[in-house]
């Protein structure tokens, strides 16, 4: 198989699928924490490795990485940089421009970048730990290049293959690339069939049963197998919320998380889910009763990872406690599609999700502690459903009211939902009055004093 064919086939996959293939083959390669630093396109290519280290003397040096950029002669390169220091930049807009001119496909940094707007302006993809403004000048130097490096616990060699997208970054060794792609394509086909089943109304507990995943690693499906796997029933959700569910949800229809958070503060109720953030900048507020799920480490043999979804009612918010784990996901595209088809309101995870493109494109509300591509299958299993769980340091009881938006997630105890909603309305009304006074010419201080701004959230 030629290199161009390999890269074309790899480009047709995503990091989730490649990560699954590596899992089946018991190979390393998936990394956590190296994400797009702007809304980058997916990149695939061959690694040009660079090792950085702290500068230990005062002698002037050539700017780090520039010799590697100058030495590139092919159009398949992705720069892979190890040794970055927390808070210190080892990439910027000038070398992004130079790399773009050289036809380099992108950069993956186990470190930080600065001047990220400059990289975005020229359309140069940069993946890394995060952004900073602090220069590497007189702080870091290039130690080596073209040699094996360690990136997030994965050994990356010169010319290894790289794929990076919204879910993160994966490295594939040259000696295993063909079997990884072959298996990845089988996984992709099988999961496409699973999605078709879900769309056709098959219970997701049956579609995502372990035997379906085990079949991925067997021989390719025949044409007759593919055609027989499409069901003809229509999708729907027989599970409905109660009249009280509908009443409590309606109480928060015109609220948002800041207003509800202030009401919780005033009433002395802990409810703000720490570090649980929206997948994207949602324009609408998601409100619904909590359907709680608790995950635990997998047993031997492993248990179920997703059968609970068939019991979730229309309008519920799935609330998953995975203990804040970021090393494996508990939600992906099949669950997203099935939840959307069954009119589930959204999902909150104290952990990570994957297949984020599906959720973003479908506008399915997801609120998580992060995103990564590595599956939770055989790593975690459902330990309990509809029992108390912990989400972002907040206790969540089944059927508590979840309010989530672009600001984050708050949990309202069901027994106090009416009280919280009433206080939230009063606070939001006062803040609206402050805004009107400001528009009418009042100073901020005058408006706040008149409507008691400084006591709005204070406990009575």
Any key phrases for this structure?
460 residues, alpha/beta, Glucose Oxidase, domain 1, eight-stranded mixed β-sheet, 22 strands
Would you write up a description of this structure?
With 460 residues, this protein is an alpha/beta fold. It folds into three domains: 28-172, Ribonuclease E inhibitor RraA/RraA-like (Glucose Oxidase, domain 1, 3-Layer(bba) Sandwich), CATH 3.50.30; 181-228, no CATH class; 243-419, 3-Layer(bba) Sandwich (Glucose Oxidase, domain 1), CATH 3.50.30. It is built from 15 helices and 22 strands. Strands 1, 2, 3, 4, 6, 8, 11 and 12 form an eight-stranded mixed sheet that branches. Helix 2 packs across helix 6 and helix 11 (257-267) packs across helix 14 (417-439). The longest helix has 23 residues, at 177-199. The protein is globular, with a radius of gyration of 25 Å. The chain starts with a helix and ends in a 10-residue tail after the last helix. Residues 219-234 have low confidence and may be disordered. Its cofactor is Mg(2+). This is Protein DlpA. InterPro entries: RraA/RraA-like, RraA/RraA-like_sf. Substrate binds at residues 332-335, 354. Keywords: Magnesium, Metal-binding.
Number of domains: 3
Oligomer: single chain
Supply Rg: 25 Å
CATH superfamily of the largest domain: Ribonuclease E inhibitor RraA/RraA-like
| Helical content (DSSP H or I, runs of 4+) | 25-40%
Protein structure class:
alpha/beta
Architecture per CATH nomenclature, i.e. the level-2 architecture of the largest domain? 3-Layer(bba) Sandwich
Query: Count of DSSP E strands?
Result: 22
Estimate what percentage of residues fall within beta strands: 25-35%
Distance between the termini: 72 Å
How many helices does DSSP assign?
A: 15
User: Can you give the mean pLDDT?
Assistant: 89
Uncertain segments: 219-234
Determine and state the CATH class of the largest domain. Answer: Alpha Beta
- Globally, the shape reads globular
Question: What fold name goes in the CATH topology slot of the largest domain?
Answer: Glucose Oxidase, domain 1
Give a quick account of the main beta sheet: strands, pairing sense, barrel closure.
8 strands, mixed
Binding site for substrate: 332-335, 354
Keywords: Magnesium, Metal-binding
Region (Disordered): 216-243
GO molecular function, one term: metal ion binding
């Amino acid at each position: 198989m030629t290199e161009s064919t390999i890269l074309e086939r790899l480009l047709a996959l995503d990091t989730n699928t490649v990560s699954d293939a590596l899992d089946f083959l018991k190979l390393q390669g998936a990394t956590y924490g190296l994400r797009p630093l702007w809304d980058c396109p997916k990149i695939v290519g061959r690694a040009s490795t660079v090792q950085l280290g702290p500068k230990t003397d005062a002698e002037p040096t050539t700017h780090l990485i520039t010799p590697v950029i100058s030495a590139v002669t092919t159009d398949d390169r992705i720069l892979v940089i190890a040794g970055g220091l927390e808070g210190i930049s080892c990439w910027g807009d000038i070398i992004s421009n130079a790399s773009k001119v050289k036809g380099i496909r992108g950069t993956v940094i186990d470190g930080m970048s600065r001047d990220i707007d400059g990289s975005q302006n020229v359309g140069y993809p940069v993946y890394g730990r995060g952004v900073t403004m602090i220069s590497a000048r007189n702080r870091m130097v290039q130690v080596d290049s073209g040699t094996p490096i360690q990136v997030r616990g994965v050994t990356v060699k010169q010319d290894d293959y790289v794929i990076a997208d919204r879910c993160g970054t994966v490295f594939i060794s040259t000696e295993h690339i063909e079997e990884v792609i072959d298996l990845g394509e089988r996984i992709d086909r099988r999961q496409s069939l699973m999605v078709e089943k879900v769309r056709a109304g098959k219970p997701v507990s049956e579609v995502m049963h372990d035997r379906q995943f085990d079949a991925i690693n067997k021989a390719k499906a025949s044409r007759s197998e593919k055609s027989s796997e499409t069901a003809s029933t229509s999708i729907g959700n027989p599970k409905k919320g109660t009249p009280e569910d509908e009443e409590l949800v309606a109480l928060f229809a015109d609220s948002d998380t800041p207003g509800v958070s202030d009401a919780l503060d005033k009433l002395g109720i802990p409810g703000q889910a720490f570090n649980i953030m929206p997948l994207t900048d949602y324009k609408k507020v998601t409100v619904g009763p909590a359907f709680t799920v608790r995950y635990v480490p997998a047993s031997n043999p492993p248990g179920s990872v997703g059968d609970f979804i068939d019991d979730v009612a229309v309008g519920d918010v799935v609330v998953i406690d995975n203990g804040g784990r970021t090393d494996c996901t508990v939600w992906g595209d099949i669950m997203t599609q099935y939840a959307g088809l069954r009119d589930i309101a959204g999902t909150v995870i104290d952990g990570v999700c994957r297949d984020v493109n599906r959720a973003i494109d479908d506008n399915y509300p997801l609120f998580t502690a992060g995103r990564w591509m590595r599956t939770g299958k055989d790593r975690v299993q459902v330990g309990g459903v509809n029992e108390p769980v912990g989400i972002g340091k907040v206790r969540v009881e089944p059927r508590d009211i979840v309010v989530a938006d672009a600001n984050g997630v708050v949990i309202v105890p069901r027994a106090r939902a009416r009280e919280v909603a009433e206080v939230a309305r009063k606070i939001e009304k006062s803040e609206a009055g402050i805004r009107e006074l400001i528009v009418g010419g009042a100073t901020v201080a005058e408006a706040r004093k008149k409507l008691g701004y400084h006591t709005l959230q204070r406990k009575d």
